[in-house]
Each structure stands twice: as structure tokens, then as C-alpha cells.
User: Fold this.
Amino acid sequence: MKIIIGSKNPAKITAVKNSFSHEGEFVSLDIPSGVSEQPFSDEETIKGAINRAATALKQGNGDIGIGLEGGVQETSYGLLICNWGALVTNESGPFIAGGARIPLPEEIAVRLRAGEELGPVMEDYAKNKNVRKQEGAVGIFTNGMVNRSEMFTHVMNLLVGQYKRSI
Assistant:
């Protein structure tokens, strides 16, 4: 089975491999999400994940395409991080699943509402490079209790479970 991952981000690649174990060949491609750099709703984040999965499957000529997308969602409780995934095959899908949500501190939310992207804002906040490829905002704001790869592994387990149930 050839599994095409629509990202070169190490946290996302690890999540996919964690969920599929040793069930196939993994190929990661740099696939654009087709949505804004900072998705600002569940709808947009889901669309980005589906776009990545479908394009990965097509460009990678694989059996399964995976798209993982992080975004934010405005609520009456503040701006929350959100993360969504999609799994598509040539026969079925998209299967979609979402994961953990936590509120962002207002100092971060203000910058995102002003048009900045979470990744660079987090690098500035944490005084660290490549936060999105490592612990992510979730890792920083959970004091390391949950990192980005673990968060996306949860989403992947939801996707793979739906997919395996359907076959």
C-alpha cells in the first residue's frame, strides 16, 4: 500500500506513520492546502485537509492520500486552535476527523486576527524556530503534555479507524 502524505512537515509525517505502523510505503509531498495560509474556521481547515489529501493521492499516484491541516476557530470563549485531517482513496472518502482544541492566549489571538499566521507568531512568542515542525502551539500551551505530532496522531487514528471500518 502506497500512502501519500500531503506535507513535508515532520510532525505530520510522524503522525501518519504512527497510525499506519508498517502497513506500507510512505511518500511525503509538499502539497498546497488551497486555502489561506492561516485557516480561520473549521470549514476552511477541513477544506485544506481534503484538498491536500486529494491532491496528494493524485500527484503521488498512491492508494491513500492524507491531508492534515491546522487552523483556528473563533468562539465566544476566544480563539481556539483546531486541527483536521482527511483520508481519501481512489474508491472512497474523504474521511474527515478533528482533534484537540485549546484557547490561545489573547496576545496571540490579537495577532492572528490582524492577519498574521500562527507559525511565525509562535516562533516569536517562544523565541524558537520551527515550532510548527516540532511541539507546535499545542505543545507550548500544554507545557509539553501534548505535542503537535501526538495531536495529529489522534486525528490520524480517527481517520484510519473510519477507513478500516469501511473496507
The longest strand covers residues 64-75.
